Request: fold
Amino acid sequence: MPCPTRLIDIINASQLTPLQLERLARIDAEDFAPVRAKVKADMLKLGMKVVDDWLDRGILALKQYYAVAVLDPLNRHAVSDAIDPFWHAHILHTKQYTSFCDDVTDGYIHHEPLDHANRTAMGEIRALYDYTAQCYKQLFMFIDAEFFPEVLDDERLVCKHMDVRSPALRAVAVLPMNLALPQVGIAA
Reply:
């Protein structure tokens, strides 16, 4: 079965608001060709064999990560090491990424890398990753385990995004604020 390419094809949209559907459509409409090209070039430099299917799956996984930020804006989330190169490549296209963030979450989606030597930060990212994995199961009918495994070893934990501050998105959050998650480090 070929990899789905659109969020709307893999998410239960029946309970989503028009605003959420608009934002998911904007994610799907993003031109990820520069991201795809950058990831491919970077992986080839590392001696990895890169096939189109893998790049397609990585782009879909990145879209899913952005969708979680839209649908669960009251909580922070952690990304897998397999998605991280795609996010980095998107961020490097600063004008495009800034415009995308403004359109999708009404503000910049900040990337905060993990310092593996910081045990407190490791625990925070662990909790956020485990929570994000549960969100994926609730929100998506398709999850590519290579890009977002349900269980991820600590050495593969890499980063998180900071809070989505959009009042409009926060007002229609699909999931409630999870007070069991670390609540520190909120971006201004």
